[in-house]
Structure formats: C-alpha cells, structure tokens
Amino acid sequence: MLFTIHPSNLVCALSVAFELSTGGLSQHHWRTALIANKIAKHIGLDEGQRQIVVYASLLHDIGAVSSWSEKKRLLTFKAGEDIFRHAETGYELLKDSQQFGMLAETIRHHHDNWDGSNPSGLAGKAIPITSRIINLADRLEILLKDHIYIFEQRPDVLSAIRELSGSYFDPELVRALHEFARQESFWLDLSNPHYYQNFFRQIDIYGRMVFNMDDVVNIGEIFATIIDRTSCFTGMHSRSVSLVAAFLAQAKGYSQEEVKLMKIAGLFHDLGKLAIPNEILEKPGKLTSTEFSIIKQHPYYTYRILEKIDGFSTVAEWAAFHHETLDGSGYPFRIQAPSLRLGSRIVGVADVFVALTENRPYRRPLALAEVEKIMQGMVNNRKLDGNVVSDLFGNSANIRTLVDQISEWSWSASQSCQY
Predict the structure, then answer these.
(1) Alpha-carbon span 216 to 205, nearest angstrom
(2) Is the CB of residue 165 less than 8 Å from the CB of residue 171?
(3) For 139, 144, 201, 269, which has the most beta carbons within 10 A of its beta carbon?
(4) Closest listed residue to residue 245, CA positions, set 340, 326, 315
(5) Which residues of the chain have pLDDT under 50?
(6) E-state strands within 6-65
(7) pLDDT, tens only, 333-369
(8) Taking the CA atoms of the chain, what radius of gyration do you get in angstroms?
(9) DSSP secondary-structure letter at 286?
C-alpha cells in the first residue's frame, strides 16, 4: 500500500502537535514558516531550499515539544545558553530519517548566532542559509503579541530585530526583512488566523511524496519517541502499544498491510498527549478533576491531527478511539459498541495491557495474573472487547514474550525516574 501525500499536508498536520497546550492551539510554527518563506522568496532562494525552509520551520522545535519547561524557555526573545540543546535534540531525531533527514542540519543550527557565539562554533555564512532564515523568523514570531494590534507592534518588533543585526542575525536577512516589512499585508497575514490555510495551499507547489507503509512506520517511530519522552515512566509506551496491537491484529487474521496500519496507529495513538503538562503525566498521586479533564483532551487531538493527513482516516480512528468503551462511557467522543470498529477495540485493549504491565509514577508493573483479572473485569463491565482480550491471553507463550519485551523497554526507560 502506498500513501500519496502532499508533504506540506503531512508536515503541517504533524506540526499541529507542537502547538498544543492546555489553553488550545498556538501558532508559533505556522507563523515562523510564513515569515521564513517570505524571507526566502524575497532573497531569491530556489524552490528546493524554500521547501527545506518551510518544512524545517514547521518542525523546528521538534526537540523541545516533549518538555513543557523547555518550551517555556523558548518564549524568551534573548534566550539563554540552553536554547541550543533542543536544536541538537531535533537534529538527532531526524538525521537518520529517510523522509525528514534533509531537514536535520537546518534544524540543528536554527539558533546559531551570526557572530559565532554558539556551541557549534559556526559563524556568518558558514551557518546554513536555511538555518539563518529560520533563526530570524523564529525570533520575530516570539515578539508578536496577539492581544496588541499588529500595526502598533511593528516599530518595536523591527527595532528589536535591528539591534541584534550582526550579532544574532545575518545583516543581509535583516535588511531583506525591513524591505518587505513595509507591506501592511505582511503584518495582516501574520495576525489573520484564517490566512494560514491559504498559505498551506500555496506551498503545495512542492508536490507530493509517495510513501510506502514502512516509510510511514518510520515517521511514526520518530513521533512515538517524542510522545513518550513526555514522561520517563512511559519511555516506550507507544512502541509497546504498537507491538501488542500488531500482535492482536495478526491474531484476528488481518492482512500484512493491515497489521502495519495497526502498528502505525499504535505509534501515533498518544500524539495528543503533547497537550498535557509533564507534571500531570508524572503525578504520583490521584489526579484532580481538573487534571483528569486535561488528560481527556489527548485522544481528541490525536484524532483531529491524524484526520488531516491524506489516507489516514482509518489510522485516525484506530489510534484515537482507544479510550472509547463498548458501553459508550469512554472519552472523548462517547462512541458506543455498534460504531466502535474492531481496530479501535484492539488499540484500546493494547493500551490497557501495556499500561498495567509497565512502570507508572504511582505503582510498579502488575503481575500477569493480576493484569488478566483486571482486564476481564473491564470486559464484564463492557469497557473492553472480550474476544480481543481472549486473543491476548489465549497463548501463554506469546503473552509472556510480549510482557518480557514491554518490561525490558519499560525498565530501561524508567531508570531516570524517581520513585
């Protein structure tokens, strides 16, 4: 099976995950991409370089999105020395990716300063032009305030940028910015929340990529790593759910391609958890009602993000409905048994099984007999599909292999946790 996907469609959809917060969506990556594309076009970069500029802009903070404290530090215009850490992390995440590897170097250097005052030691034109553009666009976006009329901000924003020309920023790029910043339309586009869909349609000129199933699995593994870094207790949770869900799909007689789709759904199922602060995910005690309501956002965002991607309608359902229950009391869509497809039931069973067999901040992994007892109780209460649970526990050798793999991953990932 091939996925014919607009690269902008895929990258824009996944970048939404970086904009998540408890207060809704921000627009940092989108506006950074818009500004960066404007600079790139103004200085005459070729189409290939502009493509890298736009896609790297949309993913430039990929190394920081797992940590809310890291994201907060990036909101300071003159950030400290630790601003370079997430750029290096982003590079490490992408450098070996066949699909996104072309963006790695740009992201690695997107905070490097023109004067060379950065860990890489690169200075001036030794810094990739794509990185220099994103650095300027990113810092300009940080200065924008949604509660102040955009034209009132323009003088102070340009002045702040101009002061750092030749130290933080490439002077030629600063001059280019000042040239097109005379256009009122530029600033109005930045402040118009309805303009971004037009912008994304414009960058569709970069064409489509043809991804096979393994390509999408590889992309899913990158995002699973990001998602699972939100808590040291869930360091391999998404991969474990993917493993168990694929095993159950095989047990149900799914085709080889469907099993890979199930693996993809498992890898992405907690994408919306990037909307949940780390302190809630790692809280050792009982959650408050407010905290639990924040937790309940995550499958909603998983669905809304994945449904935007070409060909992902089935993956979106299987991944995002893992907290729905047969009796209709699940969340966030309250789907009842007749409308809850088998793929979603499989991911739901896999998620519960993995959660019970891995380390959590409030307990150690449970013994297999206790896990089976709890899950059978959930079947009796019409929370889980009994046939899927039977498939899971029906082969003692297979389930022991799964538990051993999950335990090994969970133990390794949780070594940094404080009990």
Answers:
(1) 22
(2) yes
(3) 269
(4) 315
(5) 418-419
(6) 20-21, 24-25
(7) 999 999 999 999 999 999 999 999 887 766 778 899 9
(8) 23
(9) P
